[in-house]
Amino acid sequence: MIIRQVVIRQGRRVASRPPPPRLVHRCFASAINTDIESIEASLDNSLKETHSIESLLQNESSAIIPRALTSNLGTSLTPHYQPHALVTNPPSPSEISLPLLLASQSHLGHSTSLWNPMNSRYIFGIRSGIHIISLDITAAHLRRACRVVSGVAERGGLILFVGTRRGQDRAVVTAAKMSGGCHLFERWTPGSITNGHQILGRCKMRVVDEFDRPIPGYEDELLERPSIKPDLVVCLNPLENWVMLHECGLHGIPTIGIIDTDANPTWVTYPIPANDDSLRCVQLIAGVLGRAGEEGQKRRKEKARRGEVTYEPEVFEVKRMEEGIKTGGDEEAIHHAGGSR
Predict the structure, then answer these.
(1) Which of 92, 213, 97 is nearest to 150 (CA)?
(2) pTM for this structure?
(3) How far apart are CA 233 and CA 280, in angstroms?
(4) Distance CA 197, CA 193 (A)
(5) Across the chain, what does the average pLDDT equal?
(6) Using an 8 Å Cβ cutoff, are 290 and 174 in contact?
(7) Is the confidence at residue 133, as pLDDT, over 90?
(8) Can you tell me whether residue 258 is helix, strand or coil?
């Protein structure tokens, strides 16, 4: 026990004493040496990485020529379906073909229990209880509709594109822009044609020249004029817009529509037998008709540059000239005469 206590006391004294300066210097020097060695090792690693990157770049630059020589080798991608192409870059009327209509599912009709007997001349046959539309007749009717749209656009007519189903808005807007017409992708307001002076009485109108440039100075004359009626209506879903087609028939406005096997082809003037439930088919037909209207607009403007006007412009001063003849040219008398009427 005495020896154990002596050892404990001596140990406490040794622990309480400060370490000699030589020992502290040795420890500090060893720590510095280890830090220096780690820094040197990291520098060596970074230099090695830099050399490896430089060598890789040299190899890549030397491999440019072989890649240019071998880039044409191997397989090539065949033309594939791009959904946005029918909207952004639709085909022209001259590019209408049976494979194009077949790929857009234009031949698929409705069930045989839902068919309209008046479409029997457009039906090719029956498969799995579904009517198959003849693509030859579809192509012929689509080409005829393109000629109608092109002729109306060439003579300065107003074309209205209507498509109120979901997903048809982009195709309708694009076709209207190409043909220089109007578009409607919301619900048709009943009476817009038969009662247009009440429903569309506040719509703005403008007078344009043969190059579609606005002509100022006719604002007062346009206030007394009724709303403008379209010269041609293209309907992409006739089943939902039969009220509009009825109004067009009452006012003698020609119509073009996509007629499926369950629709009545007598609702429109120029039917196009096709699948109105396929968005791809609707985009194809709307794009082709828009291209036809664009071609008609180009021909009209080319004739205008040569000094030929393809339509007869309206004269707004006829009424004013008649009043001037009756009153002897007095401005105040003309104003009172016009107001009395």
Answers:
(1) 92
(2) 0.69
(3) 21
(4) 8
(5) 79
(6) yes
(7) yes
(8) strand
